[in-house]
From TrEMBL:
Pfam families: Abhydrolase_1. InterPro entries: AB_hydrolase_1, AB_hydrolase_fold, Epox_hydrolase-like. The keyword Cell cycle does not apply. One of its GO terms (molecular function) is hydrolase activity. Keywords: Hydrolase. This is Alpha/beta fold hydrolase.
Length: 274
């Protein structure tokens, strides 16, 4: 494994690289909101046995930069990933995106369809509207980032994890520490404020219907964050999509069912390549 920090699109981008098999397909992992590459900790060891794997911290999360001038929109995140692929000379990739990362994957598939062979969406964000004007205006207040910090502290890591994980017995100290660590750095809160301001909304239906990329949708039956009905709607709007529902599973499918998710990914890549 190689941990790397590189300047892309005006921000420092951290990624973990497992590119030891030149002939194998390349998978790029994109995490969700308030998360990092840590969320794929159980999935990566399974994937790297058969694929080249890149796991990216989308800024301002994880170990990536928290630039005040970077545009934290879905489209610009997508351009950052595209530029990283160009820098590393990657093509014919498989995108795996969880939650917000799924929306970034859809943006990449829309903007650069020739780059992507398959798109695997794990409880993907979809149909979210642009940030409310009142919230955007509030984000310009000098100390607004303190309100963002206080809100996140009030909700707490354990409470948030109980909301995204169906089986609460899976929540342990290691998991809590892994999801808390990125927020111990004060610089993330001004960047999150900028992210609220920059959020342009998810891809509209007319854009989704133009995506030809084969898409596998894997959803938790009991997802409270992005309910299954969103997955069913997305399945209908994507012209080349397959939906699989995991029973007794919440929103955090890479943590809750890594072996099952891995097998579904493996079968889908084989199926679409044939």
């Amino acid at each position: 494994m190689h941990n790397k920090l590189t300047m892309i699109n005006g921000n420092e981008i951290y990624y973990e690289s497992y590119l030891q098999q030149p002939s194998a397909p390349t998978i790029i992992l994109l995490h969700g909101f308030l998360s990092s590459t840590f969320s794929f900790r159980w999935l990566i060891p399974l994937l790297r046995k058969e694929y080249n794997v890149l796991s990216i911290d989308l800024p301002p999360f994880g170990k990536s930069g928290k630039s005040h001038s970077y545009i934290y929109s879905n489209e610009n995140h997508a351009m950052t990933v595209i530029q990283l692929c160009e820098k590393l000379d990657l093509n014919a990739i498989t995108l795996i995106g969880h939650s917000m990362g799924g929306q970034i994957a859809l943006n990449i598939s829309y903007l650069k369809p020739d780059l992507v062979d398959q798109c695997i969406l794990l409880c993907s964000s979809a149909y979210l509207k642009k940030s409310k004007r009142s919230l955007v205006l509030s984000s310009y207040l000098p100390f607004f980032h303190f309100f963002v910090k206080r809100y996140l502290e009030k909700s707490g890591v354990e409470k948030n994890l109980r909301n995204v994980v169906y089986d609460h017995s899976k929540i342990d100290v290691e998991m809590e520490k892994g999801y808390l660590e990125p927020f111990l750095e004060e610089r993330i809160f001004p960047a999150l404020t900028r992210m609220i301001r920059d959020h342009e909304g998810d891809l509209p239906v007319q854009f989704l219907r133009k995506i030809d990329t084969p898409c596998l949708l894997i959803w938790g039956e009991h997802d409270k964050v992005v309910p299954l009905q969103i997955g069913k709607r997305l399945h209908g709007d994507l012209k080349n999509a397959k939906l699989i529902v995991l029973k007794d599973t919440g929103h955090l499918v890479p943590e809750e069912k890594p072996e099952e998710v891995f097998q579904l990914i493996k079968e889908y890549i084989k199926e679409t390549k044939q």
